[in-house]
Design brief:
366 residues; alpha/beta; Rossmann fold; six-stranded parallel beta sheet; 12 strands; globular; Glycosyl transferase, group 1; Glyco_trans_1; glycosyltransferase activity; Glyco_trans_4-like_N
């Protein structure tokens, strides 16, 4: 089988985490003997370079699709890749498209993303098969687009257990991050951007610590458009001594973060949170997840077992859950950690790797 992988997000040396799950799916296909060519974009930082990159990307998709034959065109991010594929489909009707939808493909985060929705709908209607990251997101696709094409679930490349696993000796994690090993930490890994809930995390920390001061500190790993507002809020709330901010880190360093924290805080407010792979990666390192009861998080967090839920945007409830976790007896924290590990084990690359090739070989409509 020969597949053309198409994506406007793909890792580079400068941005190794950008679209890394797309690269992970490519590796799975190749490991199963499938030939994979790719037309992908890497992250650009200027508007002009983005414009030229998209123009070249779109032209390459259409030209390659017309002049070469593939069993499937496998596309990640319907919203930003639909246009050239729809053009190609008109010119070459027998082309088979497998569309992997996630995130803002189905639930736009800002008004400017709404303009892509008609194309997303058209692409899904013309796709031979559709892949979604979670049962939750599959339901969204079915409800919103009324598609009759088969929809499969594949959890975004899975968790790499070679990288994300609990350390027997946590001292390495503290050392690599330059953290004090005598202090306990909770943490969050996310872009500092709209819909990520960073502001509710900071406000909840301030409220929790005001009501019940602790020796805990709180990590935040990430960068983004709202970083200036993020830093200003830390000052306004007087959290300079409580919040430790790291910029965007490569996946290899995230393993240190997940091993340094007792629990992972996932304050997203995005209905388009199609899976929440970072939460599962944290669980794979033994960190329970204190997460918003929203999106794909509802498919793997079991309240009181492997994590705690709170209502999205509810600062009071998040603050209460932070306090609740901190006050848990040590044996209960260990039980939650073990439950988190068991949950993550269902999403490891080894476990799910067989699912993706099966989707492409499966000719039975579901």
């Amino acid at each position: 089988m020969k597949i053309l992988l198409i994506s406007n997000m793909y890792p580079s040396e400068q941005f190794p985490s950008y679209g890394v799950f797309v690269q992970n799916t490519e590796k799975i296909l190749v490991q199963h003997g499938i030939q994979v060519d790719k037309i992908v974009m890497q992250k650009k930082t200027s508007k002009l370079s983005k414009l030229f990159s998209y123009a070249s990307h779109y032209a390459n998709v259409v030209l390659t699709g017309l002049t070469k034959n593939y069993d499937y065109l496998y596309v990640h991010y319907a919203s930003h890749n639909a246009l050239p594929l729809l053009i190609l489909k008109k010119l070459k009707k027998n082309v088979k498209i497998v569309t992997n939808v996630h995130g803002s493909d189905v639930v736009p985060e800002v008004p400017s993303q709404e303009k892509y929705q008609p194309r997303v709908n058209d692409l899904l209607q013309h796709s031979t098969k559709i892949i979604t990251p979670s049962p939750y997101y599959k339901g969204l696709v079915e409800e919103k687009y009324k598609v009759h094409n088969p929809i499969y679930i594949f959890p975004s490349g899975g968790v790499n257990k070679d990288l994300f696993h609990p350390y027997a000796d946590k001292s390495k994690a503290y050392q690599e991050l330059n953290l004090d090993p005598t202090i306990r930490y909770l943490g969050c890994v996310s872009r500092i951007d709209v819909g990520k809930g960073w502001e509710y995390y900071l406000q909840a920390i301030a409220k929790a610590e005001q009501q019940m001061p602790t020796s805990y500190k709180y990590l935040y790993v990430g960068s983004g458009k709202d970083e200036a507002a993020f830093k200003e809020m830390i000052k306004t709330l007087g959290l300079e001594e409580k919040v430790i901010h790291f910029p965007l880190l490569p996946q290899s360093s995230l393993a240190y973060v997940y091993n340094a924290i007792e629990a992972f805080v996932f304050p997203t407010v995005r209905k388009g949170e199609s899976l929440g792979l970072v939460g599962l990666e944290a669980m794979a390192c033994g960190a329970p997840v204190i997460g918003s009861q929203i999106g794909g998080l509802k498919d793997y967090i079991i309240d009181g077992k492997n994590g705690l839920f709170f209502e999205p945007k509810n600062v009071d409830e998040l603050a209460s859950q932070l306090q609740a976790f901190i006050n848990l007896p040590e044996d209960v924290k260990q039980q939650m950690s073990q439950q988190a590990l068991q949950t993550a084990n269902r999403y490891t690359v080894d476990v799910i790797a067989e699912q993706l090739p099966t989707i492409f070989f499966d000719e039975v409509e579901k």
